[in-house]
Structure formats: structure tokens, C-alpha cells
Amino acid sequence: MPVYKNKRYVMWVIAIVGFIAALYLTEYPPYGKASVKLHNDGYGTFDMTNYDGKIVESVLKNTDDMQVYYKYYICDFIFIAMFAFFQYMVTTAIGKLRQEKILRVGFVLIAVRALLDAIENVSLIIVTNNFPALSYRLVNLSSIITKFKFICMGAWFVTIIVMMIVRKRKPIRTGLHNENF
User: Fold this and answer.
1) Any idea which UniProt keywords this protein has (predicted)?
2) Which candidate, 145, 115, 111, 148, places its Cα nearest to that of 127?
3) Does 28 reside within a domain?
4) Global pTM?
């Protein structure tokens, strides 16, 4: 097997195993959403829901261990990185050089989604660390960032679908002369 294929194989293994491990880390005890739910009457985390200042204040008032949020959001940074790497691998596997513009759009959406997710985490760490003082502006900004993060995610899925359609409709020429292309 050529070195390039070995490298690509290793990158795929890292992307898949890393993504699954990071997902597990952010979902299950001792640091994941399941642990957060144990400390805030079952609400869980803010980063995957629709929330505002009143909801955050209500949930945080019923939280018996504020460190659980910090631990979760720190682990979520690992997930952000591994998910971005996984998205990159999927995008490069489906995209082709002929689809350069849409490939760039896919890469930008990956980067913007990861950046928004990181900003969201930092803002929620600040909110939870400063509680009972609560900045409604920061909570509302974080909520807006959460929405845009999901918009970027959806747009990335659309670019993947478009790349798959374009790839299927217009195969890349292999150098063989075929009148059907």
C-alpha cells in the first residue's frame, strides 16, 4: 500500500475513533451531559437547547455542583476539535478538485461552526463560573451563537449533499475517451 494511502487510512482511523471517543466523553459520566443532568434536576447542558437568561438562572439555581459545567465544557472543546476533523475528512472524501468553490464553502462552514461552538463554550463557562451574578446579555449572546452554530451545521450537510449530487452527475474524467461524459 502506498504511503499516501496509509496516511489517509490513519487519518480516517483518528477521525472516526477520535470523534466517537469525544462524543462518548461529552455524553456519559464522569464528564458528559449525563453527569450534568444529575446535578441540575435533569436539565442537562445549555449548548444543545434553546435557552435564555430566565431558563439559565432557573437551572443554575437548582444546580448543586457548578464545577460539573466547567468539566463538561472543557471536554466539549475536545469534541469540537474532533468533530471538525471528522467533518474535514468527510468533506475531502466527498469533494473533488472540480468542486473547488463548494469545497471551500464546506471548509469555511466547518471552521465557522467550530469557532462558534468554542465561543459558546467560553461564554457559558463565564456564565456558570460567575453565578449567582448573571449577565443576561452574555446568556442571550450565547443563545444566538448556539442557533448560528446549528445553522452552520445544517448548511454543511447541504454542501455535502450538493457535492454528492454533483459528483454523481458529472464524474471526473479519468483520461479515457468516453463520449457519454
Assistant:
1) Membrane, Transmembrane, Transmembrane helix
2) 145
3) yes
4) 0.86
